[in-house]
Amino acid sequence: MKHFLNFIGGEFVATSKTFDNRAPADNRLLGRVHEAGAAEVDAAVRAARAALQGEWGRMSVGRRIELLHAVADEINRRFDDFLQAEMADTGKPHSLASHIDIPRGAANFKVFADIVKNVPTETFETATPDGGQALNYAIRSPLGVIGVVCPWNLPLLLMTWKVGPALACGNTVVVKPSEETPATATLLGEVMNAVGIPPGVYNVVHGFGPQSAGEFLTTHPGVDGITFTGETRTGEAIMAAAAKGVRPVSFELGGKNAGLVFADADFDKAVAGIARSAFENCGQVCLGTERVYVQRPIFERFVSALKARAEALKPGPSEEAGVNLGPLISREHQQKVLSYYQKARDEGATVVTGGGVPQMTGALAEGHWVQPTIWTGLPESAAVIREEIFGPCCHIAPFDTEEEAIALANATDYGLATTVWTENLGRAHRVARQVEVGICWINSWFLRDLRTAFGGAKASGIGREGGVHSLEFYTELRNVCIKL
Ligand code: NAD
Fold first, then answer.
1. DSSP readout, 307-339?
2. pLDDT tens column, 38-88
3. Where are the beta strands (DSSP E) in 303-452?
4. Is the distance from the beta carbon of residue 208 to the nearest atom of ligand 1 less than 6 Å?
5. Cα separation, 69 vs 227, whole angstroms
6. What is the pLDDT of residue 386?
7. Considering 180, 215, 252, 290, which one is annotated as catalytic?
8. Stated pTM of the model
Protein backbone atom coordinates (compact mmCIF):
# COMPACT_ATOMS: atom_id res chain seq x y z
CA MET A 1 0.00 0.00 0.00
CA LYS A 2 1.37 3.39 -1.02
CA HIS A 3 1.40 6.19 1.54
CA PHE A 4 1.34 9.88 0.60
CA LEU A 5 3.18 11.65 3.41
CA ASN A 6 3.52 15.28 4.39
CA PHE A 7 6.88 16.88 3.63
CA ILE A 8 8.06 19.13 6.46
CA GLY A 9 11.55 20.54 6.95
CA GLY A 10 12.98 18.15 4.36
CA GLU A 11 11.46 15.03 5.95
CA PHE A 12 8.49 12.88 5.07
CA VAL A 13 6.05 12.94 7.98
CA ALA A 14 3.30 10.39 8.66
CA THR A 15 0.19 11.15 10.73
CA SER A 16 -2.32 8.89 12.42
CA LYS A 17 -5.28 10.23 10.42
CA THR A 18 -5.41 9.04 6.80
CA PHE A 19 -7.84 9.11 3.90
CA ASP A 20 -8.02 7.10 0.68
CA ASN A 21 -6.67 8.32 -2.62
CA ARG A 22 -8.59 6.69 -5.45
CA ALA A 23 -8.10 6.67 -9.23
CA PRO A 24 -10.89 8.49 -11.09
CA ALA A 25 -10.66 6.11 -14.06
CA ASP A 26 -11.70 2.97 -12.17
CA ASN A 27 -11.98 3.98 -8.50
CA ARG A 28 -9.08 1.67 -7.52
CA LEU A 29 -7.27 2.50 -4.29
CA LEU A 30 -3.99 4.28 -5.07
CA GLY A 31 -2.88 4.70 -1.48
CA ARG A 32 -3.50 6.42 1.83
CA VAL A 33 -2.96 10.14 2.30
CA HIS A 34 -1.68 11.29 5.69
CA GLU A 35 -3.77 14.26 6.74
CA ALA A 36 -1.90 17.12 8.42
CA GLY A 37 -3.50 18.47 11.57
CA ALA A 38 -2.94 21.90 13.08
CA ALA A 39 0.32 20.67 14.67
CA GLU A 40 1.82 19.50 11.36
CA VAL A 41 0.77 22.69 9.58
CA ASP A 42 2.37 24.70 12.39
CA ALA A 43 5.56 22.64 12.08
CA ALA A 44 5.63 23.24 8.32
CA VAL A 45 5.18 27.02 8.73
CA ARG A 46 7.93 27.07 11.38
CA ALA A 47 10.25 25.05 9.13
CA ALA A 48 9.57 27.50 6.30
CA ARG A 49 10.35 30.46 8.60
CA ALA A 50 13.55 28.84 9.82
CA ALA A 51 14.68 28.22 6.23
CA LEU A 52 14.12 31.90 5.41
CA GLN A 53 16.36 32.83 8.30
CA GLY A 54 18.96 30.20 7.39
CA GLU A 55 21.04 29.20 4.38
CA TRP A 56 18.24 29.84 1.86
CA GLY A 57 17.73 33.40 3.07
CA ARG A 58 21.46 34.13 2.75
CA MET A 59 21.94 32.38 -0.59
CA SER A 60 23.05 34.44 -3.60
CA VAL A 61 20.50 34.86 -6.38
CA GLY A 62 22.90 33.07 -8.74
CA ARG A 63 23.05 29.95 -6.56
CA ARG A 64 19.26 29.99 -6.06
CA ILE A 65 18.76 30.11 -9.84
CA GLU A 66 21.17 27.20 -10.32
CA LEU A 67 19.29 25.11 -7.78
CA LEU A 68 15.93 25.84 -9.41
CA HIS A 69 17.32 24.80 -12.79
CA ALA A 70 18.45 21.59 -11.09
CA VAL A 71 14.88 21.05 -9.79
CA ALA A 72 13.55 21.31 -13.37
CA ASP A 73 16.25 18.94 -14.64
CA GLU A 74 15.46 16.41 -11.93
CA ILE A 75 11.72 16.53 -12.73
CA ASN A 76 12.63 15.85 -16.36
CA ARG A 77 14.97 13.02 -15.33
CA ARG A 78 12.11 11.47 -13.34
CA PHE A 79 9.60 12.39 -16.04
CA ASP A 80 8.01 8.95 -16.06
CA ASP A 81 7.50 8.87 -12.28
CA PHE A 82 5.71 12.23 -12.44
CA LEU A 83 3.73 11.17 -15.49
CA GLN A 84 2.52 7.94 -13.91
CA ALA A 85 1.63 9.71 -10.65
CA GLU A 86 -0.33 12.45 -12.45
CA MET A 87 -2.16 10.02 -14.74
CA ALA A 88 -3.14 7.79 -11.81
CA ASP A 89 -4.40 10.74 -9.73
CA THR A 90 -6.36 12.45 -12.51
CA GLY A 91 -7.05 9.77 -15.15
CA LYS A 92 -6.04 12.25 -17.86
CA PRO A 93 -4.85 10.90 -21.23
CA HIS A 94 -1.13 10.21 -21.72
CA SER A 95 -1.08 12.64 -24.67
CA LEU A 96 -2.17 15.51 -22.42
CA ALA A 97 -0.13 14.75 -19.28
CA SER A 98 3.05 14.07 -21.26
CA HIS A 99 2.75 17.22 -23.41
CA ILE A 100 1.37 19.74 -20.96
CA ASP A 101 1.31 18.81 -17.27
CA ILE A 102 4.80 17.43 -16.68
CA PRO A 103 6.93 19.46 -19.14
CA ARG A 104 5.28 22.70 -18.06
CA GLY A 105 5.62 21.65 -14.44
CA ALA A 106 9.39 21.50 -14.96
CA ALA A 107 9.52 24.64 -17.12
CA ASN A 108 7.91 26.74 -14.37
CA PHE A 109 11.14 26.46 -12.34
CA LYS A 110 13.47 27.47 -15.18
CA VAL A 111 11.39 30.27 -16.64
CA PHE A 112 10.80 32.09 -13.35
CA ALA A 113 14.40 31.57 -12.22
CA ASP A 114 15.53 33.29 -15.42
CA ILE A 115 13.00 36.10 -15.05
CA VAL A 116 14.23 36.85 -11.53
CA LYS A 117 17.82 36.82 -12.78
CA ASN A 118 17.14 39.17 -15.70
CA VAL A 119 14.50 41.68 -14.62
CA PRO A 120 15.91 45.01 -13.44
CA THR A 121 14.35 47.32 -10.87
CA GLU A 122 13.71 51.02 -11.36
CA THR A 123 15.90 54.05 -10.57
CA PHE A 124 15.04 57.75 -10.57
CA GLU A 125 17.31 60.76 -10.24
CA THR A 126 15.44 63.44 -8.33
CA ALA A 127 16.12 67.16 -8.13
CA THR A 128 16.01 68.31 -4.48
CA PRO A 129 14.64 71.69 -3.25
CA ASP A 130 18.15 72.87 -2.25
CA GLY A 131 19.35 72.54 -5.82
CA GLY A 132 21.02 69.21 -5.18
CA GLN A 133 20.18 65.72 -6.24
CA ALA A 134 18.89 62.48 -4.84
CA LEU A 135 19.08 58.99 -6.26
CA ASN A 136 16.17 56.57 -5.83
CA TYR A 137 16.52 52.90 -6.56
CA ALA A 138 14.37 49.91 -5.77
CA ILE A 139 15.33 46.56 -4.35
CA ARG A 140 13.18 43.48 -4.06
CA SER A 141 13.04 41.28 -0.99
CA PRO A 142 11.05 38.08 -0.58
CA LEU A 143 7.54 38.36 0.85
CA GLY A 144 8.33 35.57 3.34
CA VAL A 145 6.48 32.32 3.99
CA ILE A 146 3.93 31.74 1.21
CA GLY A 147 0.88 29.50 1.63
CA VAL A 148 0.10 27.82 -1.72
CA VAL A 149 -3.38 26.26 -1.96
CA CYS A 150 -3.90 24.21 -5.12
CA PRO A 151 -6.71 22.61 -7.17
CA TRP A 152 -6.81 19.13 -8.76
CA ASN A 153 -7.30 19.83 -12.45
CA LEU A 154 -3.65 20.44 -13.43
CA PRO A 155 -1.96 19.46 -10.16
CA LEU A 156 1.77 19.72 -10.89
CA LEU A 157 1.48 22.49 -13.47
CA LEU A 158 -0.65 24.85 -11.35
CA MET A 159 1.33 24.15 -8.17
CA THR A 160 4.74 24.81 -9.75
CA TRP A 161 3.33 27.91 -11.48
CA LYS A 162 3.20 29.32 -7.92
CA VAL A 163 6.12 27.50 -6.27
CA GLY A 164 8.53 28.31 -9.16
CA PRO A 165 8.28 32.10 -8.90
CA ALA A 166 7.87 32.04 -5.11
CA LEU A 167 11.17 30.21 -4.65
CA ALA A 168 12.92 32.15 -7.43
CA CYS A 169 12.11 35.32 -5.49
CA GLY A 170 13.68 33.83 -2.35
CA ASN A 171 10.53 32.90 -0.43
CA THR A 172 9.76 29.61 1.26
CA VAL A 173 6.48 27.76 0.70
CA VAL A 174 3.97 25.55 2.42
CA VAL A 175 1.89 23.82 -0.25
CA LYS A 176 -1.57 22.37 0.35
CA PRO A 177 -2.31 20.18 -2.69
CA SER A 178 -5.87 19.21 -3.47
CA GLU A 179 -7.08 16.25 -1.44
CA GLU A 180 -7.94 14.63 -4.80
CA THR A 181 -4.38 14.78 -6.21
CA PRO A 182 -1.67 14.42 -3.54
CA ALA A 183 0.92 12.50 -5.59
CA THR A 184 3.05 14.90 -7.62
CA ALA A 185 3.41 17.49 -4.82
CA THR A 186 4.73 14.69 -2.59
CA LEU A 187 7.10 13.47 -5.29
CA LEU A 188 8.46 16.98 -5.66
CA GLY A 189 9.69 16.71 -2.06
CA GLU A 190 12.04 13.92 -3.17
CA VAL A 191 13.28 16.14 -6.01
CA MET A 192 13.96 19.02 -3.63
CA ASN A 193 16.05 16.80 -1.36
CA ALA A 194 17.87 15.18 -4.29
CA VAL A 195 19.12 18.48 -5.74
CA GLY A 196 20.01 20.05 -2.38
CA ILE A 197 17.25 22.61 -1.79
CA PRO A 198 17.70 23.35 1.94
CA PRO A 199 15.18 21.73 4.32
CA GLY A 200 12.10 23.87 5.01
CA VAL A 201 12.17 25.77 1.71
CA TYR A 202 9.49 23.54 0.19
CA ASN A 203 6.90 21.93 2.49
CA VAL A 204 3.74 19.97 1.74
CA VAL A 205 0.75 19.47 4.04
CA HIS A 206 -2.04 17.16 2.94
CA GLY A 207 -5.72 17.39 3.76
CA PHE A 208 -8.99 19.09 2.97
CA GLY A 209 -10.18 22.70 3.20
CA PRO A 210 -12.45 23.63 6.13
CA GLN A 211 -11.25 22.40 9.55
CA SER A 212 -8.34 20.68 7.88
CA ALA A 213 -4.93 21.55 6.42
CA GLY A 214 -6.32 24.22 4.05
CA GLU A 215 -7.94 26.23 6.83
CA PHE A 216 -5.07 25.63 9.28
CA LEU A 217 -2.62 26.96 6.70
CA THR A 218 -4.57 30.01 5.55
CA THR A 219 -5.41 31.09 9.11
CA HIS A 220 -1.85 30.54 10.39
CA PRO A 221 -0.39 33.89 11.51
CA GLY A 222 3.09 32.77 10.39
CA VAL A 223 2.05 32.81 6.72
CA ASP A 224 2.96 36.12 5.05
CA GLY A 225 0.94 35.76 1.84
CA ILE A 226 -1.48 33.31 0.24
CA THR A 227 -1.66 32.29 -3.38
CA PHE A 228 -4.71 30.25 -4.28
CA THR A 229 -6.19 28.60 -7.35
CA GLY A 230 -9.66 27.14 -7.07
CA GLU A 231 -13.33 27.98 -6.81
CA THR A 232 -14.52 31.54 -6.29
CA ARG A 233 -16.49 30.46 -3.19
CA THR A 234 -13.32 29.01 -1.62
CA GLY A 235 -11.53 32.24 -2.50
CA GLU A 236 -14.06 34.14 -0.39
CA ALA A 237 -13.29 31.93 2.64
CA ILE A 238 -9.54 32.29 2.15
CA MET A 239 -9.80 36.05 1.71
CA ALA A 240 -11.64 36.28 5.02
CA ALA A 241 -8.84 34.24 6.64
CA ALA A 242 -6.19 36.48 5.06
CA ALA A 243 -7.90 39.63 6.35
CA LYS A 244 -6.60 38.76 9.82
CA GLY A 245 -3.11 40.20 9.78
CA VAL A 246 -3.87 42.02 6.46
CA ARG A 247 -1.98 39.47 4.40
CA PRO A 248 -1.82 39.78 0.61
CA VAL A 249 -3.60 37.28 -1.62
CA SER A 250 -3.25 36.26 -5.24
CA PHE A 251 -6.33 34.46 -6.53
CA GLU A 252 -6.98 32.50 -9.71
CA LEU A 253 -10.64 31.52 -9.50
CA GLY A 254 -13.51 30.12 -11.52
CA GLY A 255 -14.74 31.09 -14.97
CA LYS A 256 -17.72 30.86 -17.28
CA ASN A 257 -15.84 31.64 -20.43
CA ALA A 258 -17.37 32.58 -23.76
CA GLY A 259 -16.22 31.51 -27.20
CA LEU A 260 -17.23 33.94 -29.97
CA VAL A 261 -17.25 32.53 -33.50
CA PHE A 262 -17.84 35.07 -36.29
CA ALA A 263 -19.09 34.08 -39.74
CA ASP A 264 -15.78 35.29 -41.22
CA ALA A 265 -13.74 32.82 -39.11
CA ASP A 266 -11.67 30.03 -40.61
CA PHE A 267 -14.45 27.50 -40.02
CA ASP A 268 -12.39 24.34 -39.51
CA LYS A 269 -9.91 26.03 -37.20
CA ALA A 270 -12.74 27.54 -35.17
CA VAL A 271 -14.47 24.19 -34.76
CA ALA A 272 -11.22 22.49 -33.72
CA GLY A 273 -10.34 25.33 -31.32
CA ILE A 274 -13.76 25.47 -29.66
CA ALA A 275 -13.83 21.66 -29.38
CA ARG A 276 -10.48 21.71 -27.58
CA SER A 277 -11.55 24.54 -25.30
CA ALA A 278 -14.79 22.79 -24.34
CA PHE A 279 -13.63 19.18 -24.00
CA GLU A 280 -9.88 19.11 -23.18
CA ASN A 281 -9.09 17.57 -19.80
CA CYS A 282 -12.73 16.47 -19.80
CA GLY A 283 -13.76 20.13 -19.51
CA GLN A 284 -11.88 20.55 -16.24
CA VAL A 285 -9.89 23.62 -17.25
CA CYS A 286 -10.61 27.01 -15.69
CA LEU A 287 -10.05 28.61 -19.12
CA GLY A 288 -12.49 26.23 -20.83
CA THR A 289 -15.42 27.41 -22.94
CA GLU A 290 -18.87 26.53 -21.62
CA ARG A 291 -20.74 29.29 -23.52
CA VAL A 292 -20.34 29.34 -27.29
CA TYR A 293 -21.88 32.10 -29.42
CA VAL A 294 -21.87 31.61 -33.18
CA GLN A 295 -22.87 34.18 -35.82
CA ARG A 296 -26.18 33.18 -37.34
CA PRO A 297 -25.15 32.42 -40.98
CA ILE A 298 -22.86 29.57 -39.82
CA PHE A 299 -24.79 28.52 -36.70
CA GLU A 300 -26.38 25.25 -37.91
CA ARG A 301 -23.23 24.14 -39.71
CA PHE A 302 -21.11 24.90 -36.65
CA VAL A 303 -23.40 22.97 -34.29
CA SER A 304 -23.23 19.84 -36.47
CA ALA A 305 -19.44 20.13 -36.88
CA LEU A 306 -18.91 20.47 -33.11
CA LYS A 307 -21.29 17.56 -32.52
CA ALA A 308 -19.13 15.40 -34.82
CA ARG A 309 -16.02 16.42 -32.85
CA ALA A 310 -17.67 15.62 -29.51
CA GLU A 311 -18.83 12.22 -30.75
CA ALA A 312 -15.35 11.37 -32.08
CA LEU A 313 -13.76 11.73 -28.62
CA LYS A 314 -12.60 8.42 -27.25
CA PRO A 315 -12.90 7.86 -23.49
CA GLY A 316 -10.63 5.32 -21.87
CA PRO A 317 -7.60 4.64 -19.72
CA SER A 318 -4.68 7.11 -19.88
CA GLU A 319 -2.25 4.79 -21.64
CA GLU A 320 -4.56 3.35 -24.33
CA ALA A 321 -3.73 4.45 -27.88
CA GLY A 322 -6.15 6.98 -29.33
CA VAL A 323 -7.76 7.84 -25.99
CA ASN A 324 -8.35 11.57 -25.70
CA LEU A 325 -11.02 11.85 -23.02
CA GLY A 326 -10.38 11.06 -19.35
CA PRO A 327 -12.85 10.79 -16.48
CA LEU A 328 -13.99 13.53 -14.10
CA ILE A 329 -11.93 13.79 -10.92
CA SER A 330 -14.36 12.24 -8.41
CA ARG A 331 -17.76 10.67 -7.90
CA GLU A 332 -18.90 13.90 -6.25
CA HIS A 333 -17.84 15.97 -9.26
CA GLN A 334 -19.49 13.48 -11.63
CA GLN A 335 -22.74 13.88 -9.67
CA LYS A 336 -22.43 17.66 -9.90
CA VAL A 337 -21.87 17.62 -13.67
CA LEU A 338 -24.70 15.12 -14.21
CA SER A 339 -27.00 17.31 -12.13
CA TYR A 340 -26.34 20.12 -14.63
CA TYR A 341 -27.06 17.70 -17.50
CA GLN A 342 -30.43 17.09 -15.84
CA LYS A 343 -31.03 20.81 -15.20
CA ALA A 344 -30.42 21.56 -18.89
CA ARG A 345 -33.10 19.02 -19.84
CA ASP A 346 -35.48 20.38 -17.17
CA GLU A 347 -35.04 23.90 -18.52
CA GLY A 348 -35.93 22.74 -22.03
CA ALA A 349 -32.57 22.43 -23.78
CA THR A 350 -32.16 20.62 -27.06
CA VAL A 351 -29.52 18.00 -26.29
CA VAL A 352 -27.44 17.97 -29.48
CA THR A 353 -25.23 15.17 -28.20
CA GLY A 354 -24.35 13.42 -24.94
CA GLY A 355 -26.18 14.21 -21.72
CA GLY A 356 -25.33 11.05 -19.83
CA VAL A 357 -22.68 8.50 -18.88
CA PRO A 358 -20.81 6.52 -21.56
CA GLN A 359 -20.87 2.71 -21.48
CA MET A 360 -17.55 1.69 -19.95
CA THR A 361 -16.59 -1.93 -19.45
CA GLY A 362 -14.73 -3.94 -16.82
CA ALA A 363 -13.04 -1.98 -14.04
CA LEU A 364 -13.61 1.30 -15.92
CA ALA A 365 -17.33 0.98 -15.21
CA GLU A 366 -16.44 2.09 -11.66
CA GLY A 367 -14.85 5.33 -12.97
CA HIS A 368 -16.32 8.83 -13.03
CA TRP A 369 -17.10 9.12 -16.75
CA VAL A 370 -19.50 11.49 -18.46
CA GLN A 371 -20.35 12.08 -22.11
CA PRO A 372 -19.21 15.24 -23.87
CA THR A 373 -22.40 17.24 -24.14
CA ILE A 374 -23.72 20.07 -26.31
CA TRP A 375 -26.95 21.97 -25.79
CA THR A 376 -28.82 24.59 -27.79
CA GLY A 377 -32.06 26.46 -27.31
CA LEU A 378 -31.77 27.74 -23.73
CA PRO A 379 -32.41 31.32 -22.58
CA GLU A 380 -29.41 33.20 -21.15
CA SER A 381 -30.96 32.87 -17.68
CA ALA A 382 -30.51 29.04 -17.68
CA ALA A 383 -28.32 27.53 -14.96
CA VAL A 384 -25.97 25.83 -17.44
CA ILE A 385 -25.30 29.22 -19.05
CA ARG A 386 -24.85 31.11 -15.77
CA GLU A 387 -22.93 28.72 -13.50
CA GLU A 388 -19.50 27.13 -13.85
CA ILE A 389 -19.99 23.38 -14.45
CA PHE A 390 -16.36 22.31 -14.99
CA GLY A 391 -17.31 19.42 -17.23
CA PRO A 392 -17.04 18.53 -20.96
CA CYS A 393 -20.05 20.52 -22.06
CA CYS A 394 -21.18 23.74 -23.69
CA HIS A 395 -24.28 25.58 -24.78
CA ILE A 396 -24.29 27.11 -28.27
CA ALA A 397 -26.43 30.13 -29.12
CA PRO A 398 -26.63 32.27 -32.26
CA PHE A 399 -25.89 36.03 -32.46
CA ASP A 400 -26.21 38.62 -35.20
CA THR A 401 -23.92 41.59 -34.52
CA GLU A 402 -20.48 42.23 -33.05
CA GLU A 403 -22.01 44.41 -30.31
CA GLU A 404 -24.40 41.63 -29.37
CA ALA A 405 -21.55 39.07 -29.18
CA ILE A 406 -19.54 41.33 -26.84
CA ALA A 407 -22.58 41.96 -24.63
CA LEU A 408 -23.26 38.22 -24.39
CA ALA A 409 -19.63 37.45 -23.53
CA ASN A 410 -19.67 40.08 -20.76
CA ALA A 411 -23.05 39.08 -19.27
CA THR A 412 -21.51 37.03 -16.46
CA ASP A 413 -20.11 37.59 -12.99
CA TYR A 414 -16.88 35.90 -14.09
CA GLY A 415 -14.09 37.36 -16.22
CA LEU A 416 -11.33 34.86 -16.84
CA ALA A 417 -10.91 34.21 -20.58
CA THR A 418 -12.55 34.59 -23.99
CA THR A 419 -11.65 32.93 -27.25
CA VAL A 420 -12.58 34.83 -30.42
CA TRP A 421 -12.59 33.37 -33.92
CA THR A 422 -12.50 35.81 -36.86
CA GLU A 423 -10.30 36.56 -39.88
CA ASN A 424 -11.14 40.28 -39.61
CA LEU A 425 -8.18 41.95 -37.89
CA GLY A 426 -10.02 45.14 -36.96
CA ARG A 427 -12.82 43.16 -35.38
CA ALA A 428 -10.37 41.00 -33.44
CA HIS A 429 -8.81 44.09 -31.86
CA ARG A 430 -12.16 45.77 -31.18
CA VAL A 431 -13.54 42.70 -29.43
CA ALA A 432 -10.33 42.11 -27.43
CA ARG A 433 -10.55 45.66 -26.10
CA GLN A 434 -14.15 45.28 -24.93
CA VAL A 435 -14.35 41.83 -23.36
CA GLU A 436 -14.08 42.00 -19.58
CA VAL A 437 -11.53 39.25 -19.01
CA GLY A 438 -7.92 38.72 -18.00
CA ILE A 439 -7.02 36.76 -21.16
CA CYS A 440 -8.42 37.13 -24.67
CA TRP A 441 -7.31 34.59 -27.25
CA ILE A 442 -7.81 35.34 -30.94
CA ASN A 443 -7.94 32.28 -33.23
CA SER A 444 -6.37 30.20 -30.47
CA TRP A 445 -6.97 28.88 -26.99
CA PHE A 446 -4.67 28.03 -24.05
CA LEU A 447 -1.67 29.33 -25.98
CA ARG A 448 0.57 30.40 -23.09
CA ASP A 449 3.79 32.34 -22.82
CA LEU A 450 4.91 32.32 -19.18
CA ARG A 451 6.21 35.88 -19.51
CA THR A 452 2.68 37.24 -20.04
CA ALA A 453 0.18 38.37 -17.40
CA PHE A 454 -2.29 35.70 -16.29
CA GLY A 455 -5.31 36.16 -14.06
CA GLY A 456 -8.99 36.93 -13.97
CA ALA A 457 -11.21 40.01 -13.97
CA LYS A 458 -14.45 40.30 -11.92
CA ALA A 459 -15.17 37.16 -9.83
CA SER A 460 -12.39 35.22 -11.59
CA GLY A 461 -9.54 36.44 -9.47
CA ILE A 462 -7.41 39.04 -7.79
CA GLY A 463 -4.04 40.08 -9.18
CA ARG A 464 -1.94 38.88 -12.06
CA GLU A 465 0.91 36.38 -12.14
CA GLY A 466 3.26 35.46 -14.97
CA GLY A 467 6.52 37.12 -15.99
CA VAL A 468 7.37 40.22 -13.99
CA HIS A 469 3.83 40.28 -12.63
CA SER A 470 4.65 37.28 -10.44
CA LEU A 471 7.44 39.34 -8.89
CA GLU A 472 4.88 41.94 -7.84
CA PHE A 473 3.17 39.41 -5.60
CA TYR A 474 6.13 37.35 -4.40
CA THR A 475 8.37 40.26 -3.40
CA GLU A 476 8.23 43.44 -1.39
CA LEU A 477 9.58 46.33 -3.43
CA ARG A 478 11.61 48.68 -1.26
CA ASN A 479 12.59 52.13 -2.48
CA VAL A 480 15.95 53.43 -1.30
CA CYS A 481 16.35 57.21 -1.49
CA ILE A 482 19.86 58.68 -1.14
CA LYS A 483 20.49 62.39 -0.84
CA LEU A 484 23.67 62.97 -2.83
P1 NAD B 1 -11.65 24.17 -4.64
O2 NAD B 1 -11.83 25.62 -4.39
O3 NAD B 1 -12.74 23.25 -4.23
O4 NAD B 1 -10.34 23.63 -3.92
C5 NAD B 1 -9.08 24.20 -4.19
C6 NAD B 1 -8.19 24.00 -2.98
O7 NAD B 1 -8.67 24.77 -1.89
C8 NAD B 1 -8.10 22.56 -2.49
O9 NAD B 1 -6.76 22.29 -2.14
C10 NAD B 1 -9.01 22.57 -1.27
O11 NAD B 1 -8.69 21.58 -0.32
C12 NAD B 1 -8.74 23.95 -0.72
N13 NAD B 1 -9.80 24.50 0.13
C14 NAD B 1 -11.14 24.27 0.04
N15 NAD B 1 -11.79 25.00 1.00
C16 NAD B 1 -10.84 25.68 1.70
C17 NAD B 1 -10.89 26.58 2.82
N18 NAD B 1 -12.04 26.93 3.37
N19 NAD B 1 -9.73 27.08 3.28
C20 NAD B 1 -8.55 26.75 2.70
N21 NAD B 1 -8.45 25.90 1.66
C22 NAD B 1 -9.58 25.37 1.16
O23 NAD B 1 -11.34 24.05 -6.20
P24 NAD B 1 -11.14 22.71 -7.04
O25 NAD B 1 -12.47 22.02 -7.12
O26 NAD B 1 -9.96 21.98 -6.52
O27 NAD B 1 -10.75 23.28 -8.48
C28 NAD B 1 -11.70 23.65 -9.43
C29 NAD B 1 -11.92 25.15 -9.43
O30 NAD B 1 -10.67 25.80 -9.62
C31 NAD B 1 -12.80 25.65 -10.55
O32 NAD B 1 -13.66 26.64 -10.05
C33 NAD B 1 -11.82 26.26 -11.54
O34 NAD B 1 -12.35 27.25 -12.39
C35 NAD B 1 -10.79 26.82 -10.62
N36 NAD B 1 -9.51 26.98 -11.31
C37 NAD B 1 -9.10 28.24 -11.65
C38 NAD B 1 -7.91 28.43 -12.32
C39 NAD B 1 -7.44 29.81 -12.73
O40 NAD B 1 -6.29 29.93 -13.14
N41 NAD B 1 -8.28 30.83 -12.64
C42 NAD B 1 -7.13 27.32 -12.64
C43 NAD B 1 -7.57 26.06 -12.29
C44 NAD B 1 -8.76 25.90 -11.61
1. HHHHHH--B--TTSTT--B---S-HHHHHHHHH
2. 999 999 999 999 999 999 999 999 999 999 999 999 999 999 999 999 999
3. 350-353, 373-376, 393-399, 414-415, 417-421, 439-442
4. yes
5. 22
6. 98
7. 252
8. 0.97
